[in-house]
Amino acid sequence: MDKIHNIRVFSRVVEVGSFTAVANVLNSSIAHVSRSISTLEEELRVRLFDRTTRRVTPTEAGARYYRRCQKILADLDYADAEAADALIEPYGTLRVHAMPGLGQTHLAACIIEYQRRYSDVNIELTLSAAMPRLVEEQFDVSVLTARTLPDSDYVSQTTGTSYSVLVAAPSYLEQRPPLDSPDDLTRHECIRLQSPASPPTDGWTLENSDGEVLSNASTARFKVNDPEALRVALLAGAGIGALAVYSAIDDLRSGALVRVLPKFQLPTRNVYSVYPSRLYVDAKIRTFVDFLKHELSARMAAEEAALKNLNNGKLPFRAQ
Questions:
Q1: In what residue span(s) does the HTH lysR-type domain sit (predicted)?
Q2: In sequence order, which ranges of the chain are alpha helices (DSSP H)?
């Protein structure tokens, strides 16, 4: 067997912690992965992994070998990419993950604009509320919204900011008590978005223009994990919910939804572009992240400006 191939398989096992998962990623068999590791261990005369029924973990020698191999593989990948101009000219397939609301409203349009500029790049977009394991699931970039990111070896760049507002259909508000303060939400039907980026609690944390933070304990009778499903329920008059500005703005413009407690918003979140490594970043990843910094942030800033115009009286709002 080719030693470089065996080292790549070994590195994948260290990163994923499972022969089965590596076999799936490499579209190979568990026996092939096991044979690659055994061949390396025989050549080195050292045990590289401690094996259990649930997981394999590198031994001390295996961990040292992995650190050395990472530099070797990075240099080899750099040489290959340099020879093929992959570090200079973006081309090939870019696999992108994004959270559903952001992906449906903005990212798909940004991708079309990016491909007009870089016609040699094919893009596969996957929408999911969960933060993926980039290496194991073979994503090049993840675009997500969060207050902060968990500690990891990934590289992240802030692409923009976003926040959510409380909205409801006029048909719902016409038959319900008035809303003068966040405390009044306890008398209303509330719908909550439940996702990895949203705390699994009832109630919302709200901020006013002075930076004052208020919390309420409004109970949600209906919870959903997809922002588009939440939007559909709100349009049907099911109650009050929080939508990101980019998910709500078109319905606010048309009057299909109106803003509830317009002096308040949910805390601002960052929009991040996350990718696996800062070493020898492929041109298609680098140019895509740089493109989003300008295009995506400009789109979201324009929508937030439009929301402020609506709040300044260009369209009437109920429940103030």
A1: 1-59
A2: 3-16, 19-25, 30-44, 60-83, 100-102, 108-117, 134-137, 170-173, 227-235, 245-254, 283-309
In angstroms, rounded to a whole number, what is the distance separating the alpha carbons of residues 14 and 87? 26
For the segment 116-166, what is each residue's pLDDT rounded down to a tens digit?
Answer: 999 999 999 999 887 888 877 888 999 988 887 777 778 888 988 888 999
Joined together, the tokens standing for residue 311 give 């709040």
Hey, what are 154's tokens? 């990934």
- State the DSSP string of 79-143: HHHHHTTTTTS--EEEEEEE-HHHIIIIIHHHHHHHHHH-TTEEEEEEE-SSPP-HHHHT-SEEE
d(CA 33, CA 38): 9
Q: In angstroms, rounded to a whole number, what is the distance separating the alpha carbons of residues 315 and 310?
A: 5
- The pLDDT score that the predictor gives to residue 116 is 94
CA distance 28 to 39: 17
Q: Locate 73 and state its tokens.
A: 């593989």
pLDDT digits 0-9 by tens, 33-69: 889 889 988 988 889 998 876 778 899 998 999 988 8
> Phi-psi bin for 313: left (phi > 0), alpha (psi -120 to 50), beta?
left
| AA letter at 189 | E
pLDDT tens for each residue of 182-213: 888 888 888 888 766 555 566 788 888 766 66
Is residue 227 exposed (0-12), middle (13-18) or buried (19+ Cβ within 10 Å)? buried
Domains and CATH numbers, the chain: 3-83 (1.10.10.10), 92-159+271-304 (3.40.190.10), 164-269 (3.40.190.290)
Q: Are 41 and 47 in contact (CB under 8 A)?
A: yes
CA-to-CA distance for 231 and 235, rounded, in angstroms?
6
Structure tokens at 126: 């996957």
Q: Output DSSP code: residue 185.
A: G
